[in-house]
Amino acid sequence: LSAQIIGISTAFLTSGGIISLSYAAVPILRATPSDISLPHIDSLFSSGSHVFPQLATLAASAFGFLAYHAPPGTDARMFYLAGTVGTIGIAPFTVLVMKDTNMTLREIETQEERLGKKGIEKAGGEKKIKDLMATFQYMNYVRGAIIAVGAGLGLAGALMD
Questions:
Q1: Are the CB atoms for 56 and 148 separated by under 8 Å?
Q2: pTM for the full model?
Q3: What does the pLDDT look like over 54-83, one tens digit per residue?
């Protein structure tokens, strides 16, 4: 029961945290001039990278533990395994899909620190930066949905267990 509570609650809370960044924080940053918003985007990336991967790992570990202890061949075991993959699935999604956008925004922020507004112009201007932030926002919604699906699969496993 403890592993079920840890896995399900951690996965849903992590999903909510990721989605709320896209819903609440990123729109404010997109509405702010880039020279002000870029350092905050970098801070958002940094703080998120210190929290969300660890929480996803905890949830996936709980679901993996439950899958290991569920009777072989049962639906509960299959749902726990699927929940494990879904919750830890944010890691490859981040690396394979989001990394280029995130790194581009960080590089622009570094240019802006060195060159000021000329760094923003050199990077393609406000529109390009706002487009990159919009891309990040969308991909972050998807990342939150991935872990939410994992949480739902883990919950389904618990209901069958």
A1: no
A2: 0.88
A3: 999 999 999 999 999 999 999 999 999 999
